[in-house]
């Protein structure tokens, strides 16, 4: 056996100065120049040829490749993406990133601390624990609350439903357990429930009101019926920030029912919970603090890079009850009264990087005052955009602006159309075409969704980097595209007079 | 409503050049200088005072703080950690990190691509998918295999057991289902099973042989008894790399039984699966390719930073069956035959960063040949250390070197001791003291574990940066500490003649 001459071989350990220079140049370009110069397209989806090329480039070779080639390959690969942080990406829930999050994550990368246990990472564990308690307080939860940073909403929802299952149900009750959700409840709640061992059929969908919120009367009725049928209601899944419309369930009404019926109230606030840090709109989330558990993703609306999700539980001992990974239960139950925290006893993961530190970095640097303004900014932008569309011709508003999001569609006059046409279908096609053209021309990326069967456009305008003037220009461009689509549609389909 | 002057306010968006300079300096220091200059201690656990200070510094303020202060606070916080990448940290499973992993993760950070769906990140999705297929092939799995990058072994084991549950059991069989594991099976397998809805009592512990491996005869007997009692055996959890000793279950024997009995064989190779990329020791993992599912953490033994875990499943359609998150099942079943991949249909998470790209970066840069040597290096080091201890006086080897790990303890002559003493207890105390002193003096961090009740020292020597000469010096220092502890012990406890 001979030793590797590791310190003399730059491919194995420390890179040469000029290699570091390459990375530093890239880093500098990203932080100081427009990120757009590296990824000019808002939406850049790999073609079949791109894909084949990347597959070839992925298979590891026997020998190492030069650093500059690997870097340039990686930049090319990563550029096939949706620039979720782009101020004009309005689809999904965008990720408008504060630069401080990049910096915080790079320092996190450099230290590479395992934050599963106190032993491995007592520094970041302390900060995450304190930050979690502070966030719980902002959400209105009591001082008994605790939680853990996870990768995102799906993991947060899974962690919460497992905790609820273990706190509320005897083992033999599980097959008869019932969960209440609405059509607007995020698909990840269903996913969490199936991972936790429930069937989809155990999720009962409650009727919604005209704002898509769970109807309290229907919920009460359904609970009564289910109990009568020998089922075991145990969990209500409310939402603070529907992905489709930005709407919020009546959280106080849900909390009242949960209290009366002795059910667990989980609120999926992955998107919307951040509103509690706003200056002018905290009230939107009224009732949030009455939840038994809460999902909240800083990588959605607290301007963090992936991954940065959070699950909070009203009484942190319930987390220990479900996720304690030590042999001895007593020691860990005690732990919650001391300064130390082993996060692997509060959540699913054992290996975990210090996801919360980039948020800490951002909050320290930016300050609460400005964070609040940045959140409010997005809410005002959506209201401004809704108003602007209302004043333009042929645009219909399907859901009014809520939490920086609204839904709308273009409906051209259809009196002279070929009567054999399905008007609803035409409308759908026209709006799909508007979205597609806006993306293709890199003007903006509003995406489509369906509300009450109608395909419509949806804008989530939460970027603090987007000015009202820029948004106004985007809306004018979208209106022009709509006219263009309309003209081309009429040319094809108008009833010949 | 007034717009935020975001581009003029450096705390909100783009940092000033001198702020970037601060980060770049830190980055440079990390990559080119010894990382030890920032974290001189191998083990640095926060004191009560440190903790109180950090808690104070965590609460967000109304106004932002200067960049240099936030950076220096963060460096201080992160320094309270175990330097898991330090060549002389031998505890847990160390994380000796290849520098290329840092660089790959910094580029990943800069692009911040969501890799849950093809739409969001077609570039990194393609590379991760191709890399996963290649890794499956290296492990001996067939071309039907697929998987997903996760945060670590616990998530990999959870993903695998949910997949096994859904593939093997009817819903009403779940309460009678039985899982087979041994005492050496990692605690995260238990955790995954309880999250997936099983009780701890459904995990039957099988007897082990003298090398701590599951005894095939006992397993066969237990399956027969369980079937006779109306239970439903469905899963065998084998291990490739026991955390305690580096041992490996007889994977071929387990695969034979799984095949005969129609059970699912999951192998937790979070630590040890990487041996299939070694040059000289691939054979250790014989039978690995017969598993139905496999956990494999590149952040353990492929020199990656957190987080970088992987779960592989023999037939990737089973993943889609359990984790598909779309409304329409057909579309996603079809997907597995095309170029596109939506990873949120292959695993639990929807939000997910491109964890696999830093591994891709490392493999491209280093090349397979050298990666193989780096893995072999750790295996040879442990063999060398075992041999060295064998040649020193009063040291006992409790488990021979396997996968870069071995167990040993110091047993001084005890003839003249006070006869009222518990010799075993004395031995435990002596070895605990040796470990404690080595850590306190920052000589090295061998940690303690128990094998057949005896407390012993355990070294995992997988750092490619550690030379044989350095290891020899460490062993000599540990031997000196042992003599010191022995002398102080004898002084107190020797029987007065």
Automatic annotation (TrEMBL), chains A, B:
Cofactor needs: pyridoxal 5'-phosphate
Keywords for the protein's UniProt record, in alphabetical order: Decarboxylase, Lyase, Pyridoxal phosphate
Signal sequence, start to end: none
Lineage: superkingdom: Eukaryota
GO annotation (BP), single: amino acid metabolic process
GO MF term set: carboxy-lyase activity; pyridoxal phosphate binding
In-chain residues carrying the UniProt-annotated modification N6-(pyridoxal phosphate)lysine: 300
GO CC terms of this entry: cytoplasm
Keyword hit for Lyase: yes
Family: Belongs to the group II decarboxylase family.
Stated name of the protein: Glutamate decarboxylase
């Amino acid at each position: 056996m001979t030793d590797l001459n590791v310190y003399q071989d730059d491919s194995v350990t420390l890179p040469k100065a000029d290699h570091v220079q390459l990375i530093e140049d890239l880093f500098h370009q990203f932080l100081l120049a427009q990120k757009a110069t590296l990824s000019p397209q808002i939406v850049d989806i790999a073609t079949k040829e791109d894909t084949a090329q990347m597959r070839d480039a992925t298979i590891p070779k026997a020998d190492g490749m030069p650093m500059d080639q690997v870097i340039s390959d990686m930049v090319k690969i990563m550029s096939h993406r949706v620039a979720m942080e782009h101020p004009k990406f309005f689809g999904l829930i965008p990720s408008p990133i504060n630069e401080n999050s990049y910096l915080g994550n790079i320092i996190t990368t450099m230290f590479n601390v395992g934050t599963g246990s106190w032993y491995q990472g007592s520094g970041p564990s302390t900060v995450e624990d304190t930050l979690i308690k502070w966030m719980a307080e902002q959400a209105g939860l009591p001082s008994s609350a605790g939680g853990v940073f996870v990768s995102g909403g799906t993991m947060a929802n899974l962690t919460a439903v497992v905790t609820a299952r273990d706190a509320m149900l005897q083992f033999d009750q599980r097959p008869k357990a019932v969960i209440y959700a609405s059509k607007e409840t995020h698909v990840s709640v269903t996913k969490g429930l199936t991972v936790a061992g429930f069937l989809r059929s155990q999720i009962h969908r409650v009727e919604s009101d005209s704002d898509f919120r769970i109807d309290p009367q229907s919920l009460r009725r359904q609970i009564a019926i289910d109990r009568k049928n020998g089922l075991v209601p145990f969990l209500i899944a409310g939402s603070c920030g529907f992905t489709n419309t930005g709407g919020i369930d009546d959280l106080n009404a849900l909390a009242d029912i949960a209290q009366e019926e002795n059910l667990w109230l989980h609120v999926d606030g992955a998107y919307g919970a951040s509103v509690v840090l706003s200056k002018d709109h905290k009230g939107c989330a009224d009732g949030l603090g009455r939840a038994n558990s809460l999902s909240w993703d800083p990588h959605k609306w607290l301007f963090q890079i992936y991954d940065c999700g959070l699950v909070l539980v009203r009484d942190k001992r319930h987390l220990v009850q479900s996720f304690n990974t030590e042999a001895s239960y007593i020691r860990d139950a005690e732990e919650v009264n001391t300064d130390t925290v082993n996060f692997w006893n509060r959540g699913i993961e054992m290996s975990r990087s210090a996801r919360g530190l980039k948020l800490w970095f951002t909050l320290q640097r930016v300050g609460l005052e400005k964070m609040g303004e940045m959140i409010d900014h997005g809410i005002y932008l959506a209201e401004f955009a809704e108003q602007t569309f209302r004043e333009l011709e042929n645009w219909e508003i399907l859901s009014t602006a809520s939490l920086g999001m609204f839904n709308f569609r273009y409906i051209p006059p259809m009196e002279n159309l070929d009567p054999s046409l399905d008007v609803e279908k035409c409308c759908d096609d026209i709006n799909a075409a508007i979205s597609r053209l806006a993306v293709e021309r890199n003007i903006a990326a509003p995406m489509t969704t369906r509300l009450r069967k109608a395909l419509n456009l949806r804008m989530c305008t939460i970027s603090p980097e987007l000015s009202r003037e820029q948004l106004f220009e985007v809306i004018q461009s979208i209106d022009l595209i709509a006219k263009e689509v309309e003209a081309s549609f009429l040319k094809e389909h108008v009833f010949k007079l």
